[in-house]
Design a protein that fits this description.
alpha+beta, 8-stranded mixed β-sheet, 6-stranded antiparallel β-sheet, 16 helices, 31 strands, 24% strand
């Protein structure tokens, strides 16, 4: 197989002995050291024009990465190309491999065609069988179960009710008796993670449940099941896994009393599964699991390989992460939690099956080398590096998680928090603070500062939360030392009011038993610097909320959300929106003198609203001070600020941005004013 198209441009002189260019001929392929080494291949224009076998393989790795990730790997005309040799490449199953600098997810490893005895034994296989080798798959799983303590579920060491809170039983497909069964004690089971898509999925209902509980009934409904579910049942049979959990058949789809408590423990279902089967191929539930059935995939050749010198054959292979980047599976909201929390995962792609746990990553195209498994933890989870981060010095990666999650799609918008509930629970444990509408109250001020391009309103959730908006979020503000920022540059005392009208502090160590009172270096919400108003005559002393405020659901528009609303005091100014960008949904903010005093992203611009049509000043709420950087030293303080719109006594967010210190003095009437805000 050709590695790349014939190069255009001048032909680079190569060694007649090795077939390598003068740069690649310096790489000691047969005597690579047991460490990490970087090799320079010269300018990118030279590499692109070279006929050298290794240069062409490097170019192929770049092309493969661009095609699968959808991201351009720019090689500047005068820039140089480098490759790294890593003897213990975690992404390559712990084997040694080359990777292109800046392109870490495609690996160039030794092929099994190597004949020289002194070359590494790990290698790429020349071809893959048309059907999955289930005995080999069992060896992967059995090795993990026997040697990786971090991959072992603790479900047998605690009670069923402790594991699956709120459930009396779990329903499974019994692949031996071919029917549904209900279990009230822990069992070993597999869980299926897949995309429903538009295929008419056969579902468990109140009407067909009694029939589906009868032994042998699965044979009757077999033709009605989507191919992915049929393949998962067949796979469990050959892997000797008796019980299989599939949402469409194990949850009564038209019974809210069955669905709602099960959705709350969906994270536990995947976390405690003996194995999660991931259908990473196709667009719907009928795509199947390629390789399970004989003849459903052709014998697959591995990624291109070539002889770079006598006895040395190299091939290119993408990582699991890169493969997922190009799959529809990666774009769905529910699959994030299923992927992140599963201890062992078996991925089915069109041309390969990959096993991944917390201690190993095994590809069909790579030979097995258990000596390399479990030497280091595979960083396959967004959560793996966050659990030990101190809550006072970091956002614990939650902002990164939201960046990835909010670009995913969901069929039912009301599931926005349900689909992330298990991960939110774990971040709550990490922070040692509760969440409010998906926002960690310990760093509440920070997580109010989300932005996004062309955000659209999601009904049923408060506008101050990211959950209240559709669209990819961005937390691009300057990195801050959270303790110092909360202590010195925030002033709002946040209160919340629930649907029953009860008023309480959002953060109160006396009410939050999990807060570590011994760690008072975390300032939180009790030690705030009073607001320093640029207009000294304005009284900013009041921070306590109005107690007798009455909010009735029938007096509140659909766009507002009563459970919960925020209630707080802060400074408000009135500015005009100028240079409204209808394509990017942004604009400038100007004061009385017409000078630009800030910029803002505009939320809900594409919704049915006339708010942005008016030329009148908008109400801008000051939230906190922006951390100062070198550019700010001559400009003074700037504020993070939110544009709001009032409807029947409740305000909604309409934009967020940064305004200058002078905006306070340049406010249109009736501002500036210290004002109580009720934000839904």
């Amino acid at each position: 197989m050709e590695l790349a198209a014939e190069p255009k441009g001048p032909v680079i002189e190569e060694s007649l002995v090795t077939g390598l260019c003068s740069f690649c001929a310096k790489i000691p392929f047969k005597e690579l050291r047991h460490d990490t080494t970087r090799f320079n291949l010269g300018r990118s224009s030279r590499v692109l024009a070279s006929r050298c076998k290794f240069c062409r393989l490097v170019c192929y790795a770049r092309t493969l990465s661009q095609q699968m990730s959808g991201q351009n790997i720019h090689w500047s005309e005068g820039g140089e190309v480098e490759v790294d040799w890593n003897d213990n490449c975690l992404g390559f199953g712990g084997h040694g491999a080359f990777s292109l600098t800046g392109c870490w997810e495609v690996f160039i490893g030794f092929s099994s065609l190597n004949e020289a005895e002194n070359l590494p034994s790990y290698s790429l296989l020349p071809s893959l069988p048309g059907q999955l080798d289930t005995q080999r798959t069992l060896r992967w799983i059995d090795y993990c179960a026997s040697n990786h303590d971090g991959c072992v579920s603790l479900v047998h060491e605690i009670t069923f009710k402790d594991t699956f809170l709120g459930l009396n039983e779990l329903r499974f497909i019994d692949v031996v008796d071919s029917c549904l069964v209900e279990k009230r004690e822990p069992v070993e089971y597999a869980a299926l993670s897949y995309i429903w898509g538009s295929f008419p999925n056969f579902r468990l209902t109140q009407a067909n449940k009694p029939r589906l509980m009868r032994p042998g009934v699965l044979h009757s409904v077999w033709p009605l099941l989507p191919r992915t579910i049929r393949d998962a049942v067949s796979l469990c049979r050959v892997l000797r896994i008796r019980f299989l959990w599939v949402d469409s058949l194990c949850l009564v789809q038209n019974d809210y009393t069955d669905l709602e408590p099960s959705i709350r423990v969906m994270d536990r279902i995947y976390e405690h599964a003996w194995l999660t089967i991931v259908a990473a191929h196709g667009h719907d539930a009928n795509a199947g699991l390629p390789g399970v059935q004989e003849g459903d995939r052709h014998e697959m050749e591995c990624r291109p390989h070539g002889t770079v010198e006598p006895g040395v054959v190299l091939g290119a292979s993408p990582s699991l992460k890169l493969r997922l980047m190009g799959s529809l599976y990666q774009t769905r909201a529910w699959t994030l939690q299923e992927h992140e929390l599963s201890r062992r995962r078996l991925y089915f792609f069109k041309d390969e099956v990959i096993f991944c746990c917390r201690g190993a990553e095994c590809h069909e195209s790579w030979p097995d080398d258990p000596t390399r498994w479990g030497s280091k933890e595979i960083p396959s989870s967004l959560l793996s590096d966050t659990q030990t981060i101190h809550m006072g010095n970091s956002q614990c990666g939650y902002d990164d998680l939201l960046r990835g999650y909010t670009k995913r799609q969901m069929t039912n918008e009301s599931d926005v928090l349900n689909a992330l509930a298990g991960i939110i629970e774990r971040f709550t444990q990490c922070y040692r603070f509760p969440m409010l509408a998906g926002l960690p109250v310990g760093t509440f001020d920070w997580f109010l500062l989300f932005q996004g391009e062309r955000l659209r309103r999601r009904r049923g959730f408060p506008s101050f939360s990211w959950a209240g908006w559709r669209g990819k979020l961005n937390f691009s503000y300057s990195a801050v030392e959270m303790n110092e920022w909360l202590r010195d540059q925030t002033w709002i005392i946040w209160y919340k009011r629930d649907s029953a009208g009860a008023l309480s502090l959002i953060w109160d160590p006396l009410e939050n038993k999990s807060f570590p009172l011994e760690d008072m270096t975390f300032k939180g919400y009790r030690e705030r610097t009073p607001f320093s108003c640029p207009v000294p005559s304005i009284d900013t002393s009041r921070t306590t909320p109005t107690q007798n405020l009455v909010l009735l659901p029938d007096n509140t528009p659909e766009s507002s959300c009563l459970s919960p609303v925020l209630q707080f005091w802060t400074l408000v100014v009135y500015l005009k929106i100028q240079d409204l960008g209808v394509f990017r949904a942004d604009g400038s903010l100007v004061g009385m003198d017409g000078v630009i005093l800030g910029n803002t992203s505009l939320d809900g611009l594409d919704d049915a609203t006339t708010f942005f049509d008016s030329e009148n000043p908008v109400e801008v709420v000051l939230l906190s001070q922006r951390p100062r950087n070198i550019l700010d030293r001559r400009r003074g303080h700037r504020y993070y600020a939110m544009i709001i719109e009032w409807n029947n006594g409740v305000a909604e967010r309409r934009g967020l941005g940064v305004i200058e210190h002078d905006a306070v003095r340049q406010s249109f009437s009736p501002g500036p004013v210290w004002k109580e805000i009720v934000l839904g």
